[in-house]
Design a protein that fits this description.
2 strands; 147 residues; single chain
């Protein structure tokens, strides 16, 4: 395993994706209080927990795709439009789609926990960074420099 093949851009994209997966799995998306009782639910819990699970799956696939390309370059994987960066952008978009659907199907701003708000920031960052990488822009250091 040669970690020298993993660029700073790869670490950033993979790190943001990993943070989003952790958020979806463990941080409270919904906080509900009824008198002295309160409960917290993650994105993978009801309601519509399947959407959270599909978002997690999309993030895990993005990380796996990045790891396979960098750590096992001899392995041939299917690519969208013949581009690994395009494939990762689509995976980021699919992940974001399921996060957005989870939100749209459960709009209750008074019930959202801090995990939801963090997921919004991480999802926007994920899609933006994947788009930058797809377009050949460096996301580490100077943003306007083409690789």
């Amino acid at each position: 395993m040669n970690l020298e093949r993993v660029s700073r851009d790869d670490w950033i994209l993979g790190g943001i994706t990993l943070l989003l997966v952790i958020d979806l799995l463990f941080l409270p998306w919904f906080s509900i209080s009824l008198g002295p009782f309160s409960a917290s639910l993650t994105a993978t819990d009801a309601p519509d927990g399947a959407l959270g699970i599909l978002a997690v799956l999309g993030g895990v696939l993005l990380i796996a795709d990045l790891a396979m390309e960098r750590l096992s370059p001899q392995t041939t994987l299917p690519a969208i439009n013949g581009s690994r960066t395009q494939t990762r952008f689509v995976l980021a978009g699919v992940t974001a789609l399921f996060v957005v659907l989870k939100f749209v199907f459960n709009i209750h701003f008074s019930d959202f926990g801090f995990g939801f708000y963090l997921a919004v920031i991480l999802t926007i960052a994920l899609v933006y960074l994947a788009l930058q990488v797809r377009n050949g822009m460096s996301i580490a250091g100077l943003g306007g420099i083409r690789r």
